[in-house]
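Readers of this paper often ask what the protein records in our data store actually look like. Below, we set out a record of this kind in full and without editing:
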Amino acid sequence: MKKIPVSEIFYSVQGEGKYCGTPSVFVRVGGCNLKCPGFGDKGCDSYYAVDKNYQKEWVLMNIEEIKKEILKYLDKKPHLVITGGEPTLFHKELYPLVEWFENQITIETNATIDIDFEKYPKYKDVVFAMSVKLSNSGEEYNKRVKKEVIKSYAKNAKKSFFKFVIDRDLKNEIEEITKNIDIPIYCMPLGATKEELEKNAPFVFEFCLKNGYCYSDRIHIRLFGKKKGV
């Protein structure tokens, strides 16, 4: 069985999106197919799961080893959040974990990697938190927006939602990406630190009210900043 690079596994509260505030076990894989230079020098608030300079800190684990870690927290009846990095890079390897876990699963993804939902049908029960990157990420459009992948996720995994990172008025981009896709749209402020988050939050709050989007805060950053394992 092929092993998966794991940056960290921890128990915490979901800090953003549809299930914000829910006790959850997080499995954070290492590696991503985007760089997002527009989000600062590190390109990601979970830079240690993206930057290959941190690979020595990742642990190669098989599914049984990952299950063993999750079992430590099952008495709390948590959700499972598979995040990264970009976890869909390993969707074939992670599938036995998705089949095994009995409570709600969220996969946090940039929605650029296609999944065969007929071959891997249990993914239809997963909530894909589609954090499709906008122009403020600094990525080229053709790398960050894969419309057929987005449509497939929304069609097959019907509890999924969009989760956009905002620091300015990007309504036109959001409308172009979400056109004819009827799933919730969450927007959250750009910010890898509490100070940056608080700077952008008031604008995003008003932006959501004006456009009928759901506002998502980022509890973990507000409380702990860049600290790992929260």
Observations:
- The mean pLDDT is 95.
- The longest strand covers residues 4-13.
- Helices lie at 63-71, 91-100, 141-144, 147-156, 171-178, 194-211, 219-224.
- Strands lie at 4-13, 23-29, 59-61, 79-83, 105-109, 127-130, 161-166, 185-189, 214-215.
